[in-house]
Amino acid sequence: MVLSRISFISLISFINFARGSPLPEADSHHKHDHVDRRGGTCAFPSEEGMVAVQTSGTNAGWAMHYDQQCSYGSWCPYACKPGQLMAQWDPEVTSYTYPGSQYGGLYCDDNGVLQKPFPEKDYCYDGKGTFIAKNQAGSDVAFCQTVLPGNEEMLIPTLVGSNSDSVLAVPGTDYWASTASHFYVNPPGVSVDDGCKWGSTANPWGNWAPYVAGANMDDNQNTFVKIGWNPVYLEDTSPFKNVKPSYGVRITCDDPSQCEGLPCSIDPSSQDINAVNSTQSADGAGGGAFCVVTAKNGAKANIEVFEV
């Protein structure tokens, strides 16, 4: 199977992340600024398109870990509406390297004033619109997008109602470091409040959800979409490694003639755990099987969630 360089690099970085825990908290100050000794925080601004997440936590709406504040001298990422992408990040960071990969969003300066690094850009902007989540299950499904640039925790919510659909965020090469968007696909019936945050082995959702997905578009109008097994779900220490999920996922296209890589599906009713129905399946870092579909010429691809 041949992947674009963009989608392949993004896929590997995502699966490596999925096996661990959220990245360490970003440095408490910008790499070119002095540490402010007075302390203090910047409030979530609720600008056009922004979505406040985990509002009961000390992050107070920012797309940061539950107990992490937007403190003086730090970068503070935020979530956007479904189908949209964050348009602000540290302009000096142009590659996927730590700790710069955490410098997304707005900068809370040493005086507690939020700085917008790209003043000419909106806070959020529409993605390519070529990846559609379709929920064929009997309950709502929470798609939880990871925050990048940011701590890569799955905090950005898209709730797809039963028998309905929603556009997922698809970045182009103009997005930060040409990275893709990544999602955890939670079991039907799990809310975004429960699914779109770092979880534990108590339940198979959040970072323990069985399935992950991702998408990006290259400069030739090819959209690369992937579905796969979450490596964390499969680990030897996972209590879920021998538990078949009660739902499956598959990629479909409204115009199959514009899509390469079909079929691409995971159906626990007819497949073993960590099995993918595809002629071009592969195993990623951590051993999670996945498949990729290329939707050409700006065509749309769907990720369908169904009960088994």
From TrEMBL:
<keyword id="KW-0732">Signal</keyword>
<comment type="similarity">
    <text>Belongs to the SUN family.</text>
</comment>
<dbReference type="InterPro" id="IPR005556">
    <property type="entry name" value="SUN"/>
</dbReference>
<protein>
    <submittedName>
        <fullName>Uncharacterized protein</fullName>
    </submittedName>
</protein>
<feature type="signal peptide">
    <location>
        <begin position="1"/>
        <end position="20"/>
    </location>
</feature>
<dbReference type="Pfam" id="PF03856">
    <property type="entry name" value="SUN"/>
</dbReference>
<dbReference type="InterPro" id="IPR053088">
    <property type="entry name" value="Beta-glucosidase/SUN-like"/>
</dbReference>
